[in-house]
Specification:
Length: 203
């Protein structure tokens, strides 16, 4: 009996606490007017990706007397912030916008952290296997090498304004390099700054 009463009390208390907290809401990513945060959120990634790709498309880097799209790979993206940022998330947006421009295609065979899709090479391990129809196995010399590489860095700087306020600065840097010559054809830095309470956590 005591055990039943205790269990009922615990369940009621949990339900009460849960009911008193903020209600859960879906985020409308197209019209989000929610409060800004000191750390980086999806809006910052969207803005940074859009600004950088707009700069790239406007530049002459991808318009050098050529009709075919460039084959591009993503190199190393350095996270020099206090946050555990998944740089693949940022670059996925950048790569998507670049491909949407029609001026580049991305390769999944080569990347700064290895191939994007391991199946490219696993499928080639099936050569000469009696268990597989060789007509469907990729032949040698079919992978298209990248011509350009896009690499970069995300930097965070915290500046104390006064006793109660702080400014957090984020710098998104990208570089486009010709892999044949090693020459850099384009680079861009996008800045996102935030001011708020010094008690707010920026990581």
């Amino acid at each position: 009996m005591i055990r039943t009463i205790l269990l009922t009390t615990i369940v009621t208390a949990v339900a009460f606490v849960g009911g008193c907290g903020p209600r859960t809401e879906n985020i409308d990513v197209h019209h989000d007017t929610g409060p800004a945060v000191m750390g980086l959120d999806y809006r910052d990634f969207d803005q940074a990706a859009a600004d950088m790709v707009e700069s790239l498309v406007r530049s002459s880097a991808l318009k050098r007397d050529r009709t075919e799209p460039y084959v591009v790979t993503t190199g190393r993206i350095v996270n020099d912030t206090m946050q555990r940022i998944d740089t693949d998330q940022l670059m996925a947006k950048v790569e998507q916008e670049m491909m949407n421009s029609g001026q580049v295609v991305m390769t999944s065979a080569v990347g700064g952290d290895g191939p994007q899709d391991e199946m490219i090479y696993q499928a080639r391990e099936l050569r000469y296997s009696d268990e597989f129809d060789q007509a469907n196995v990729p032949e040698k010399g079919q992978i298209v090498a990248p011509e350009l590489s896009i690499s970069g860095k995300i930097i965070q700087r915290n500046v104390r304004i006064d006793r109660n306020r702080q400014q957090v600065e984020y710098y998104f840097q990208l570089y486009l390099t010709d892999l044949n010559s090693g020459l850099r054809f384009w680079q861009n830095e996008t800045f996102i700054g935030k001011r708020g309470s010094s008690r707010s956590v920026a990581w």
